[in-house]
Amino acid sequence: MTFSDKLSRQRYTRSDFEFDLPSALIAQHPLPERTSSRLLHVVPKENAAPVLADRMFRDLPSLIAPNDLLVFNDTKVIKARLFGKKASTGGRVEMLIERLTSDDSALVQMRASHMPKVGEGIALDGARAIVLERQGRFFEVRFEGTGDLVAWLNVHGHMPLPPYIRRAAGEGDDARYQTVYARVPGAVAAPTAGLHFDEALLAALDAHGVRRTTVTLHVGAGTFQPVQHEDLSQHVMHREVYEIPAATVAAIDAAKQSGGRVVAVGTTSLRALESATDDEGVLRAGCGETALFITPGYCFKTVNRLLTNFHLPGSTLLMLVAAFVGYETMCAAYAHAIHAQYRFFSYGDAMLLEKS
């Protein structure tokens, strides 16, 4: 490991979250069964080394108390990767939708030898996209000839696998890069902690008396955006749309009143909940946008436990994990995971984190 020693310092920089990860540990394919992933249970200890327990994901019901509440992100991944040609020159264009902005428009990233200009058309399968404006590294485009855009994408688009998966998306990814409880189309990256659940495990949790509820946060491609600045205060977080149903607020209030813990399934669920919680700790129902960047020192107001996968070196999600369990505990957990050859990133293994 190459994590820096932060025991005597209070201010963190991007380099403090870099580490050496063997490429062989980056999962390129899902396991045959969702619940056959491994699970590292991480329990921080004050003034002592954390307790790190190697488990299997199917063991989860034994680790969740009946009065705990699991909060799932029910966003659904759309087939957000498109290939087309510039109408003016025939030059190839690859588009990755960042987010849908209306029934017929989207904010997209593009790859092309020469970027399309405002007003230029891009020919797609039986349709076209018109560039409306450029917003930094994104383009606002309007789709024509698609009809229902999400339905059209399901036919003509490709599943947007993350950049560290070094292969083209296949038919199997249509199902496996999607949670079994996905309901609301709009994400362009999966809430990957949820990929470990299947219907049998959900039924086992129900039988154990564990309650569950949902939020919606549409994960954008910006989730893979690296932190560019050493000074973390200079990082501009990507924005994502979320919704907190009133029923979810009621479920969380009931869990807390009964002494239960709120378990966020994934960093996306956690960010949605924390974004909708005010400084007095009151969680509000409704829709919003979040650019919440959680770094060590953040005071968590709603979430008590976190289920998450193993994250990229130098990423904002790794910083979130360090904020949740403590920097030294995070370092110890990742060093253990590498030594024990856990599988990393979207199709990899998981952690259950107790808050420090």
Summarize the structure.
By secondary structure, the protein is α/β, with parallel strands linked by helices.
Model regions low in confidence, pLDDT < 50 over at least 5 residues: 1-9
Instruction: Kindly report the spatial arrangement of strands forming the biggest sheet.
Output: 2-1-17-16-14-3-12-13-15
N-to-C SSE string, H for helix and E for strand:
EEHEEEEEEEEHHEHEEHEHEEHHE
Q: Number of helical runs?
A: 8
Record the SSE blueprint.
Elements: E1 38-45, E2 48-56, H1 60-63, E3 69-73, E4 75-77, E5 81-86, E6 92-100, E7 105-112, E8 121-124, E9 127-135, E10 138-144, H2 149-156, H3 171-176, E11 184-187, H4 199-207, E12 211-217, E13 240-244, H5 246-257, E14 262-265, H6 267-275, E15 286-290, E16 305-309, H7 316-325, H8 327-339, E17 350-354
Parallel strand pairs: 1-17, 3-12, 3-14, 4-11, 14-16
Antiparallel strand pairs: 1-2, 5-6, 5-8, 6-7, 7-10, 8-9, 9-10, 12-13, 13-15, 16-17
